[in-house]
Amino acid sequence: MDDNILARVERFKRALNRLIALKERISEYGLGEDEIDILENNTRILIEALLDIARAVIAERDLGSPKTYKQVATILYENNLLSEREYQLLRSLAGLRNVIIHMYVGIDYDRLLEITDLLSDIEALMNKLLAHLKET
């Protein structure tokens, strides 16, 4: 794998670990301003790294040029590279990324915190995408 991919995977892993630690911290201390900053920033990093790897799979397999992040999920699903559940997860994460980045609506931090319940699914999705990259 090239350095660009490896750098994104490292950012993903760091964000994942920060969110795992945050979940424990919040259960002990609650959701304060520092925790909100950690949650918002690392969720964005986690999702963007995942989407970057997904786009790399699409590029490596010459499956097209998605114009939106939600199209990334659609292309992978339509080419049988994602299950229905993984497709829904990736689409949902793309939408969440847009809310964080563009502040379409006020962010509901309690709802955003729900991502910490999906971390194992998100990590499994990243591993699947990386396996697809290794196949090419």
What does this structure look like?
This protein is mainly α and 136 residues long. It has a single domain (3-135), classed as bsu32300-like (Four Helix Bundle (Hemerythrin (Met), subunit A), Up-down Bundle). The chain contains 6 helices and no strands. It has helices at residues 3-29, 33-60, 69-78, 84-102, 109-112, 119-135. The longest helix has 28 residues, at 33-60. The relative contact order is 0.16.
Fill in the keyword field for this structure:
136 residues; 6 helices; 0% strand; mainly alpha; globular; 77% helix; Four Helix Bundle (Hemerythrin (Met), subunit A)
* Share in helix: over 70%
The protein's oligomeric status is single chain
Which architecture per CATH? Answer: Up-down Bundle
Low-confidence parts: none
Helix run count:
6
Shape: globular
| Percentage of residues in DSSP E strands | under 5%
Major sheet details: none
Average pLDDT figure: 93
- Write the H/E string, N to C: HHHHHH
Number of strands: 0
CATH class category label: Mainly Alpha
What structural class is derived from the secondary structure elements? Answer: mainly alpha
Q: Looking at this structure, what is the CATH superfamily?
A: bsu32300-like
Output the radius of gyration: 15 Å
**Number of separate domains:** 1
Distance between the termini: 11 Å
CATH topology: Four Helix Bundle (Hemerythrin (Met), subunit A)
